[in-house]
């Protein structure tokens, strides 16, 4: 075999082992018995050592030195493998294992601390996680910004300074829009209770409506919904709330967006570096456009209104127009995953600034709760009432995912661009969505984004689909037009 063929064969085995490691994480959050946490941490550490050794195997460097790219697919595979080899070669194996073990332990401690409203119980392990991630970031970054090294794990090409500039342009218009909305009467909120079985049945129907292939996936419950896997085994989770079925429905649609990306990648890329989404920002573009521009649009909510009446009977909303306003109601709230489209990015900006300060050393873990509460009061105008509504609400930091949060807002920006391009190309799309038929929309996304996996860089992926480089302007225009109509601004 030539060098490229040998290298790709080795990379496929590494990717397969990575999928096995990912399945350990899925099991931990869905089915693992509580008492198994210490052993699972050891298992994660062992897998991390095996994967790290493969990522930095000297043969990879030898193959890379002589491998030739004979087509764009080979060139992209070599780009991904080289990037992984160079990055992982800078991280000591013991550090990689320690991170895997500590974050596995920290996840379960976070979940219990969140349930108990006990920040102090979580902080010692969070300090360890932060210290380990800082050590990793410094090893990778050298003289560059350590936060950028972490961000690069999730969004290649991006930088903290670049994202801060985008946020600085977005924040004034988002704040002005929120202020104008909050001065208007709010649409009715949902009231009453909605049984869990009905929520889960309708959740499964929504997953199928958005093209989720259950022959190659499954839906389970988790504290914090997520998607896991790639190729032929892509699993999602959701959660229920007796008083807020939207939490279940839109969590499901969101995670189906992630899963559809993985399921939609050309099978020729299976278990290769191109066989997964190219970045978390592009991944979030799929989950956010499924959830918001499609799932919360007037056309699709009209269909959902009828399905909710069929499932739960009369639930106090007069008609489809009123239901659309309720789905898109802008109101005070603490939880990022439950936030409306107008305020969602403001939640991300808060987390982005705090985690950059943690990684730079300007903010200590012991001061994080106070910093969070002060910033939240400043940004949203009211005080955090309990830790589960504040610093303990998200799973990400317990798992060491520093640099991940800004990709949510990048995903919104990318989704705004994709929605504008898709609507320009697909006439009569709302007629389909009003029947609960998302196939033309999801098909357009599969054809223009999903099938390519990691073939292109993140920015080029969006540019290829839309014809221009990403900009926040389409998202801001979409939000101002949509909520301007709902609230008669």
Describe the structure.
It is an enzyme of class 3 (hydrolase). Broad specificity carboxypetidase that releases amino acids sequentially from the C-terminus, including neutral, aromatic, polar and basic residues. Zn(2+) binds at residues 254, 258, 284. The mean pLDDT is 96. This protein folds into 2 domains: 3-144, no CATH class; 160-486, Neurolysin, domain 3 (Orthogonal Bundle). It is globular. It starts with a helix and ends with a helix. The protein is mainly alpha-helical and 489 residues long. Strand 2 (227-230) and strand 3 (233-238) form a beta hairpin. The protein contains 20 helices and 3 strands. 65% of the residues lie in helices and 3% in strands. It has a 3-stranded mixed β-sheet.
Number of spatially distinct domains = 2
Question: Helix and strand string, N-terminal first?
Answer: HHHHHHHHHEEEHHHHHHHHHHH
Structural class comes to: mainly alpha
Largest sheet: 3 strands, mixed
CATH architecture of the largest domain: Orthogonal Bundle
What Rg, in angstroms, do the CA atoms define?
A: 22 Å
């Amino acid at each position: 075999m030539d060098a490229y063929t040998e290298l790709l064969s080795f990379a496929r085995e590494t990717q397969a082992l990575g999928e096995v490691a990912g399945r350990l994480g899925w099991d931990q959050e869905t089915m693992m018995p509580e008492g198994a946490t210490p052993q699972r941490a050891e298992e994660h550490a062992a897998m991390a050592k095996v994967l790290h050794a493969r990522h930095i195997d000297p043969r990879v460097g030898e193959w890379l030195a002589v491998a030739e790219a004979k087509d764009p697919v080979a060139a992209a595979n070599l780009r991904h493998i080289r990037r992984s080899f160079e990055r992982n070669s800078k991280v000591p194996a013991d550090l990689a294992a320690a991170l895997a073990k500590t974050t596995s332990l920290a996840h379960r401690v976070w979940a219990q601390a969140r349930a108990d409203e006990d920040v102090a119980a979580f902080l010692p392990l969070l300090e360890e996680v932060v210290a380990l991630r800082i050590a990793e970031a410094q090893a990778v970054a050298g003289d560059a910004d350590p936060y950028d090294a972490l961000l690069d794990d999730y969004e290649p090409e991006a930088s903290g300074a670049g994202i801060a500039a985008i946020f600085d342009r977005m924040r004034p218009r988002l704040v002005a829009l929120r202020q104008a909305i909050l001065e208007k009467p709010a649409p009715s909120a949902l009231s009453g209770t909605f049984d869990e079985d009905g929520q889960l049945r309708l959740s499964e129907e929504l997953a199928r409506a958005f093209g989720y292939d259950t022959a190659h996936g499954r839906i389970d419950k988790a504290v914090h919904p997520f998607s896991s896997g790639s190729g032929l085994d892509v699993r999602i989770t959701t959660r229920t709330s007796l008083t807020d079925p939207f939490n279940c429905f839109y969590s499901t649609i969101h995670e189906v967006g992630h899963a559809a990306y993985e399921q939609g990648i050309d099978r020729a890329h299976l278990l290769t570096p191109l066989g997964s989404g190219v970045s978390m920002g592009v991944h979030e573009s799929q989950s956010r456009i499924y959830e918001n521009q499609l799932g919360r649009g007037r056309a699709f909510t009209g269909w959902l209104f009828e399905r909710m009446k069929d499932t739960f009977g009369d639930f106090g909303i007069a008609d489809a127009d009123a239901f659309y306003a309720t789905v898109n109601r802008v109101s005070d709230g603490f939880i990022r995953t439950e936030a409306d489209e107008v305020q969602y990015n403001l939640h991300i900006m808060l987390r982005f600034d705090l985690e950059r300060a943690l990684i730079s050393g300007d903010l200590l873990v012991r001061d994080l709760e106070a910093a969070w509460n002060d910033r939240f009061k400043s940004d949203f105008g009211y005080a955090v009432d309990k830790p589960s509504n504040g610093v303990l609400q998200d799973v990400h930091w317990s798992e060491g995912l520093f640099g991940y949060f800004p990709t949510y807002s990048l995903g919104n920006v990318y989704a705004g661009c994709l929605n504008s391009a898709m609507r320009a190309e697909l006439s009569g799309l709302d007629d389909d969505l009003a029947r609960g038929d998302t196939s033309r929309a999801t098909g357009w996304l599969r054809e223009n984004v999903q099938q390519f996996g990691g073939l292109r860089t993140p920015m080029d992926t969006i540019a290829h689909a839309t014809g221009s480089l990403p900009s926040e302007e389409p998202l801001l225009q979409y939000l101002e037009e949509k909520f301007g109509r709902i609230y008669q601004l």
